[in-house]
What we know:
The protein is an alpha+beta fold. A hairpin with a 2-residue loop joins strand 34 (741-744) and strand 35.
Amino acid sequence: MQFGYFDDEAREYVITRPDTPLPWINYLGCEDYFGIISNTAGGYSFYKDARLRRLTRYRYNNAPLDSGGRYIYLRDDDAPASPFWSPTWQPTRTPLDEYECRHGMGYTTIQSTRLGIKANTRYFIPLGANLEIWQLTLTNQRPEAANLSIFATVEFCLWDAMDDATNFQRNYSVGEVEVVDGVIYHKTEYRERRDHFAFFTCSEKLSSFDTDREAFLGPYRGWESPRGVERGSLRNSIAHGWQPIGAMHVKVALQPGEGRTVIFLLGYQENPLGEKFDPPGTQTINKHTVVPVIRRFLQPVEVSAVFNDLREHWRGLLGKLQVHTPDIHTDRMVNIWNVCQLMSTFNFSRSASYFESGIGRGMGFRDSNQDLLGFVHLMPEQARQRILDLAATQLPTGGAYHQYQPLTKRGNNEVGSGFNDDPLWLVLSVAAYIQETGKWDILDELVPYDNAPGTEENLYAHLQRSMQYTLDRLGPHDLPLIGRADWNDCLNLNCFSSSPGQSFQTTTNKDGKVAESVFIAGLFILAAQMMIQITLRRAGDQEAQVYCQAIDHMEKAVWAAGWDGNWFRRAYDDSGEPVGSSTCKDGQIFIEPQGICIMAGLGIADGKARQALDSVAERLATPHGIMLHQPGYTQYYLNLGEISSYPPGYKENGSVFCHTNPWIMIAEAMVGNGARAHDYYLRINPSRREEISDVHRCEPYVYAQMIAGREAPTHGEAKNSWLTGTAAWNYLAVTQWILGIRPEFDGLRIDPCIPPEWDDFSVERIFRGCRLNITVRNPQHVSRGVTRVTVDGVKIEGSLVKLEALSGAHQVEVWLGG
Ligand code: GLC
Ligand code: GLC
């Protein structure tokens, strides 16, 4: 069953009924001001940081779902008895005669018709501005004139979303607003240490307004039935404490067939410290800085122009890599939606989505480094800055804060460090940056540790410390100690928590000197391979030699203690017992070590990789994707931690944790099984799953973090869409390993591993300033094997396109064969 369809031409997903199984959201904003918006206009906005600078309120976990948003009401002033309605369906949920939501790249348009009044609202955030535009066009399709009242509303958040949701004894007394010249200013705490305020205004003269929630809604009423809208006029209330809101009332008279556009602006503004008040010495906001901004964006011509700029911006981003394959689901994700999701994971890491409250987590060190792997070709300069920001939170030990807050860019002390895989991901992101851009000078950038001035070393030294961090922490089997957790945040082998409410990630009851991770061993080898290539081009043979030996040593340890006979083991617990072994009762085989060890090349030469992948196919693969482990943990295991806290089939306890599936796709491609690699890709591809939207339930245009596993009663149901490492890794798996267009240090490798039935495919890719039009032909229907490559008609040796001498556009032709 479907709730909409893809409009690939327009690069939109079109939702055709408002009651989707869950709110299906989109992101607005590209730079500093952001918002999430659902298909019924739910959601919230923030400046840079969803926790520390939240502009509007949203109520997670509420009934009905998706409460709080950019709500508009329409009222028929000629027929006051007829019910008013929401043209975006929520919050009144009045039946609409027509409804359509189009989520596009950085904008959302919701259009509906009721009783002959057509309403089209386009929500977007222009580039270079800290505000959002709601562009509402009303058209009167009735045979007679219509007199309508429009009410546009937001509920302000008192900036720190955590405090806003908890500290009511204070918050009910601090709220302050001003209303001047048709602009509602939200200025809570502006009197003291804040230099920022929010504003809400529109292009029409206000008939009335409210800034006090109760005055607008009426006592004991909700957003679905505001007293003020029912009455057709607002109270011009000024909020003093309690819940400040912005509610604006505009009247429009429309002749038959007439249309009218009204522009609403919600924005954020900072004032220079010495110029907060005007006149000085008062408590009144200095509005000289913001009034010109408001004037500019209330002009319809300007609004059209900035919307076009936004479209151009996205056209440029999507144009960096476009593919044309025999498979529509591949094309649609790679060319449009996966890129959109990559932008979101870059901007928000795991902080703000319909499932992530924006309060709990800032930017993850591990997460952000992995997100960069898929993002780096889109905006290399931003990727470079992110790498330097991340590296600046690294600790002198080589370890890393697990998270940082985007507003401050400081490591987050509450979570701290000790996730022993974290530092290695930095090596992978830096390598990906150099492979994409060829800009080796990033290694010379001076970066502090723990943001402490005076501690700067070059980025290369940071990478060396990342590697050394693992080597300094080896356990009884010479495998890396796991610390608080590795990639799997919930495999907490030193936690041993028996008190409810303790954090599995930060509680440590063991000294950490025994529990080891085979996963980190594989990741270390992968990172060390990058270091060898980097050092060979930089420090020379000797240092490369050190990493060669380290790999050698680590590989020996994996084969001695990490191989279970038919697959790689996962770990050793604090008693030295294996995790992920056929000797275990639950959790006999895990996906992660199969993925990472094979990606590091282990077992490819001697067939063990093939064997491990066959075990994955047999034991972990389902029609809905590949599960994390099997069997799921049937009870809570003190020695394993959070992984066994989830019921089997959910989250880290054996769901299809999508992030890991592309590792297996890459591994399958590395052993030459293109059919299986692509088949796995399709199982979790949301476009492919669109036709089972009633089962999948999350958005059919973005990957979800998890799909309930075989042991779950809701097998196939997705959760936690949007903010997941799945975005970057799937993009990598399909573009670099299945289609095989892969940046390397010395050029662009072309080495596809595709389903053998494919006749051909083509790719346009911008790489180091060149535009490459690549055509791959597969006349003998093989999966893999490049037999000939020509660049502009001239045959080259091998399959690496080196670009030193090139610029401009080039034709690359590739033939596969046996
Ligand atoms: C979440 C975390 C990520 C972790 C994964 C597995 O996606 O953000 O860091 O690797 O879960 O636990
Ligand atoms: C990871 C996991 C989640 C866990 C969380 C703890 O992101 O996905 O299950 O609860 O980390 O921070």
